[in-house]
Specification:
The chain is mainly α and 313 residues long. It starts with 6 loop residues before the first helix and ends with a helix. It has two domains: 146 residues, no CATH class; 118 residues, Rossmann fold (3-Layer(aba) Sandwich), CATH 3.40.50. It has a two-stranded parallel sheet. The chain has ten helices and two strands; from the N terminus they run αααααααβαβαα. It is 49% helix and 3% strand.
């Protein structure tokens, strides 16, 4: 058994880590899978049954759900997979005489919830099932607490990664009156620790690689003084790194935005009119203040060419 304090584990760990960084990226996830199977096998090969059983259930349920259009049948499939996954977890957590010697894998509760979340997203139509057994390939990091390593084992995209780059055309109008004027709000409130951590990482990465960076936010009619205080924290961080933060919540009128006509009913998101005004202002500001290369007809930017032709202007 490779206990976390055993001589075998302490000896093998640096070798495993060294090989991980020497291997090509495309086989890293398979390497992690094999290493983890070996690790769990040291506790008894039956321990692997738990994780692989849930992985297979999640994979099969996802494929079946993706191929069924009937709402009633989809609901039955989802509930059946949910029951099986929870039953597996409860069975091994509570234990029976036959399996009393099996040590449940570290992080199995988290992994079970992750598989359920994956199946649920497919049931709700939020994502498509991955036929490449990605649900099983999530196994290597079920006990890993560090989010930075997750990109080795999951896909970056589901469906069409280039589809409008997240933009959704909305021409409906939601009238927002009595929008809070936050121009004079000067107090600062802290932002989420992880948000600040990664904001700083992005800025530092760009500056280290001589990449110009400008921060901005889109005008938002639902802005509150408390939210603006957090935006002021972003402005404070930007000043610390000597970069610009263009706060459009404070200065929405300067770009000609009118919350009586330029917002949709989707929690204050800008509609087509508002998005056009904001986008044109950003384009004009960047063009006037920076030397931007023209990427039209350049190799590697074909997706943007396609999107630009399909967008309304």
């Amino acid at each position: 058994m490779f206990g976390l304090t055993s001589i075998e584990f302490i000896t093998m760990l640096p070798i495993v880590v060294l090989l991980f960084y020497l291997l090509p990226n495309k086989i890293m996830q398979y390497y992690l899978l094999v290493i983890n199977i070996v690790f769990y096998a040291s506790f008894g090969y039956k321990a692997i049954i738990i994780v692989l059983a849930e992985a297979v259930v999640g994979y099969v349920a996802a494929i079946l759900l993706d191929g069924v259009s009937s709402g009633h049948r989809r609901k039955i499939l989802f509930l059946a997979s949910l029951t099986i996954l929870i039953s597996i977890l409860v069975f091994f957590k509570i234990g029976t005489k036959a399996f009393s010697t099996i040590i449940a894998p570290l992080g199995i509760s988290f992994y079970t919830l992750q598989v359920i979340s994956y199946v649920f997203d497919i049931y709700k139509g939020l994502i498509k099932a991955d036929s490449r057994l990605s649900i099983i390939m999530r196994f290597p990091y079920i006990y890993n607490k560090y989010d930075e390593f997750r990109h080795f084992t999951i896909n970056k995209y589901y469906g069409d990664e280039n589809q409008s780059l997240g933009y959704a055309y909305k021409d409906n109008i939601e009238v927002y009156e009595n929008v809070v004027d936050v121009k004079t709000v000067s107090e600062v409130s802290s932002i989420d620790h992880k948000s600040e951590q990664y904001l700083r990482k992005i800025i530092e990465y760009c500056q280290y690689n001589n990449i110009g960076i400008v921060l901005t936010n889109a005008p938002w009619p639902c802005i509150t003084e408390e939210t603006q205080k957090r935006f002021n924290k972003v402005a404070e961080i930007a000043d610390e790194y000597k970069i610009l933060f263009l706060d459009r919540c404070k200065y929405s009128k300067e770009i000609g935005l009118d919350y009586l006509t330029d917002s949709s009913g989707d929690n204050g998101h800008l509609n087509y009119s508002g998005a056009t005004k904001y986008t044109m202002w950003v384009e004009e500001y960047l063009s006037d203040n920076y030397e931007l290369p023209d990427r039209r007809n350049e190799s590697g930017y074909e997706a943007y060419e396609l999107i630009s032709r399909e967008c309304k202007y």
